[in-house]
């Protein structure tokens, strides 16, 4: 009984995968995303990762969650579905790699807390600049990392930490970061300032505090730091980039519910995108990474 | 605590000349006793059944192990306790300072609003405008306006600290509520009290101070406690300005491994603060001779 049903399912999976591939190639013409032009092919997905055999939230659809507001440079104009911005583009590329047509990709708003709590979820994957860590793996599944991230310190021109070159020189500064981020952890674990760090709900509030000179600097991931200095601050400067904590490379990963049946397939798609250079290309397209001096 | 005279019947010494309830009355009493025992038994069984059923449904739901792991992890609770307690210390300090200021400002505004005579119209107008404005404005907006807006003015001499402006916002917002509670209390004191006080030669101020306000405050103690407990938790809202209170500390601890036990730790600590406070207020109210209308 079970076997026959499995056979029927895998049969229809092949059929659907074929259909999806056709759908993909017809709909790519209408989308503006540079990513989606990489036409998905049914042959790229093995049976285990065929769309019909995936335990999707909505059958036949790939549902991607992210928080609202969706911040630049990870998203653009607050519209994840437009495929612009690094994470929007990566998510679209992952979906395409897994064989989903652009029309079968849907975005939902998932507050960050919602993404990491147990229970039934309304998304298949969540993409929200979440850093992978072994501790967090106890609560959620992560795909392979889609971005190698480093933390940077920014400040305003003429601040007490403007022009500093060593991590130790920052210990006297009042630093701020967004709550629940590895940036905050970088302050407490690496910089170890004498003044208690300020913690903000969002990076926007941290930027406001920096503008008011209520804090001396902000720690954020490098692309966000560049975005802040370029777009959000009038006289913002990058102090430098922090060395990797404990020598381990920090990575952003897609979040899936604990024990999700999709994790392996999503990881496979991410790995393929890394191998074929798509991730690097998208990073160059959407993120500014270069030019942050390394702090000693 | 009725005092049944017939109990002495059972006493040794054969006081048979004393009044003995009739056989019919004894039968009635026995029946009533049996009904009481029966009710108690039914109540106990039904409580055990309901609580047991709820507990069983809870612990046998498919997601319970995950929920238990995520919210009730003993090791995580122990690990996060110092940080959360440290955050709670900020709540307590803010609570103590703000509650005194709120009581003073609230009572002042309440008295302003209850002044009679055309000459006091500006004060009445101010009192009404103040309560209307700060009861209407969301506390979060007041916090953001004062905490980020005022420092942005760049005026010299004004404090920049987040805690200062956070407390200022709490005091303004809560004073509006507390003023209305006090006003209700003041207006609930019968006019004859004021008339009597004035006829004894007390000035308007003296009659307020010695006659009206003491009675008013005693009557509104329970709602004032409500506001006090509410303030205890809202004191954490100043965390949006970058400082770390108990809940923010819990959030930071949660971000490390996506385990929500620290929030439960903070919740338990808040309840531990609240319960003794409620008992204390009851005690104060009773000591002042406030029996409420329930007791005759």
Description:
- The complex is a heterodimer of chains A (296) and B (296).
- In chain A, α2 (86-97) crosses α7 (263-275) and α2 (86-97) runs antiparallel to α8 (278-286).
- Chain A is elongated.
- A 5-stranded mixed beta sheet of chain A has the order 7-6-8-5-9. In chain A, strands 2-1-3 form a 3-stranded parallel beta sheet, covered by helices on one side. Chain A has a two-stranded antiparallel ribbon with strand order 4-10.
- By secondary structure, chain A is of the alpha/beta class.
- Chain A is built from 8 helices and 10 strands.
- With 296 residues, chain B is an all-alpha fold.
- Helices cover 75% and strands 0% of the residues of chain B.
- Chain B has 11 helices and no strands.
- Chain B has helices at residues 23-60, 64-71, 74-114, 121-136, 139-152, 162-188, 191-199, 204-219, 221-234, 246-257, 261-287.
- The interface between A and B is medium-sized, with 31 and 26 residues.
- Chain A: It holds the Pfam family SBP_bac_3.
- Chain A: It comes from Candidatus Phosphoribacter hodrii.
- Chain A: This is Amino acid ABC transporter substrate-binding protein.
- Chain A: Keywords: Signal.
- Chain A: InterPro entries: Solute-binding_3/MltF_N.
Write a brief structural summary.
The complex is a heterodimer of chains A (296) and B (296). Chain A has 296 residues and is of the alpha/beta class. Chain A has 8 helices and 10 strands.
Which two protein chains have the largest interface (Cβ within 8 Å of the partner's Cβ), and how many residues from each? A-B, 31 and 26 residues
Q: Helical region count of chain B?
A: 11
Q: What gyration radius of chain A follows from the Cα positions, in whole Å?
A: 21 Å
Average pLDDT confidence of chain A is 81
What is the helix fraction of residues of chain A, given as a range?
25-40%
Radius of gyration of chain B, in angstroms, nearest whole number: 28 Å
* Secondary-structure element series of chain A: HEHEHEEEEHEHEHEEHH
Whole-number mean pLDDT of chain B: 87
Assembly classification: heterodimer
Query: In percent terms, what proportion of residues of chain A is strand?
Result: 15-25%
Question: What count of structural domains of chain A?
Answer: 3
**Total number of strands of chain A:** 10
Shape of chain A: elongated
CATH top-level class of the largest domain in chain A = Alpha Beta
CATH topology of the largest domain in chain A: D-Maltodextrin-Binding Protein, domain 2
Strand portion of chain B:
under 5%
Protein name (chain A): Amino acid ABC transporter substrate-binding protein
Signal peptide (chain A): 1-22
Keywords (chain A): Signal
Domain Solute-binding protein family 3/N-terminal (chain A): 61-290
């Amino acid at each position: 009984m079970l076997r026959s049903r499995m056979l029927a399912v895998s049969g229809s999976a092949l059929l659907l995968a074929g259909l999806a591939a056709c759908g993909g190639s017809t709909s790519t013409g209408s989308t503006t995303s540079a990513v989606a032009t990489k036409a998905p092919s049914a042959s790229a997905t093995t049976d285990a990762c065929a769309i019909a055999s995936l335990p999707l939230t909505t059958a036949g659809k790939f549902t991607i969650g992210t928080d609202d507001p969706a911040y630049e440079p990870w998203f653009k104009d607050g519209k994840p579905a437009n495929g612009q911005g690094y994470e929007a583009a990566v998510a679209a590329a992952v979906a395409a790699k897994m064989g989903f047509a652009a029309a079968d990709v849907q975005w939902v708003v998932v507050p960050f807390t919602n993404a990491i709590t147990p229970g039934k979820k309304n998304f298949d994957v969540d993409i929200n600049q979440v850093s992978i860590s072994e501790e967090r793996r106890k609560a959620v599944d992560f795909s392979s990392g889609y971005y190698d991230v480093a933390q940077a310190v920014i400040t305003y021109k003429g601040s007490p930490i403007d022009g500093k070159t060593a991590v130790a020189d920052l210990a006297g500064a009042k630093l701020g970061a967004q709550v629940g981020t590895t940036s905050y952890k970088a302050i407490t674990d690496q910089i170890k300032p004498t003044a208690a760090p300020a913690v903000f709900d969002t990076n926007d509030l941290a930027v406001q505090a920096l503008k008011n000179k209520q804090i001396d600097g902000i720690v954020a991931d490098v692309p966000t730091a560049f975005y802040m200095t370029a777009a959000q601050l009038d006289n913002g400067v990058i102090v430098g980039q922090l060395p990797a904590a404990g020598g381990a490379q920090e990575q952003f990963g897609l979040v899936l519910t604990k024990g999700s049946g999709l994790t392996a397939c999503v990881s496979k798609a991410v790995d393929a995108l890394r191998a074929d250079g798509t991730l690097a290309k998208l990073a160059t397209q959407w993120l500014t990474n270069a030019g942050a001096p390394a702090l000693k | 605590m009725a005092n049944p005279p017939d109990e002495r019947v059972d006493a040794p010494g054969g006081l048979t000349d004393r009044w003995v309830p009739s056989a019919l009355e004894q039968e009635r009493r026995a029946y009533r006793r049996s009904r009481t025992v029966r009710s108690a038994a039914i109540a106990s069984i039904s409580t055990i059944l309901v609580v047991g059923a709820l507990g069983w449904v809870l612990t046998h739901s498919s997601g319970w192990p995950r929920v238990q792991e995520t919210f009730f992890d003993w090791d995580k609770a122990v690990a996060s306790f110092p940080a959360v307690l440290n955050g709670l210390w900020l709540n307590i300090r803010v609570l103590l300072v703000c509650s005194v200021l709120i009581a003073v400002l609230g009572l002042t505004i309440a008295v302003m609003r209850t002044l009679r005579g055309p000459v006091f119209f500006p004060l009445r107008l101010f009192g009404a405008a103040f309560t209307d404005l700060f009861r209407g404005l969301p506390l979060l907006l007041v916090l953001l306006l004062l905490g980020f807006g005022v420092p942005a003015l760049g005026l010299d001499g004004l404090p920049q600290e987040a805690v200062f402006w956070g407390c200022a916002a709490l005091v303004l917002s809560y004073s509006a509520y507390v003023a209305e509670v006090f006003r209700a209390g003041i207006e609930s004191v019968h006019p004859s009290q004021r008339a009597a006080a004035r006829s004894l030669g007390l000035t308007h101020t003296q009659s307020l101070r010695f006659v009206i306000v003491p009675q008013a405050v005693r009557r509104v103690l329970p709602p004032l406690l409500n506001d006090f407990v509410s303030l205890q938790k809202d004191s954490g809202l100043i965390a949006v300005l970058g400082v770390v209170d108990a809940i923010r500390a819990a959030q930071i601890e949660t971000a490390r491994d996506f385990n929500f036990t620290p929030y439960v730790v903070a919740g338990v600590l808040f309840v531990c603060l609240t319960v003794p406070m409620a008992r204390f207020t009851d005690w104060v109210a009773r000591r002042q001779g406030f029996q409420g209308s329930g007791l005759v």
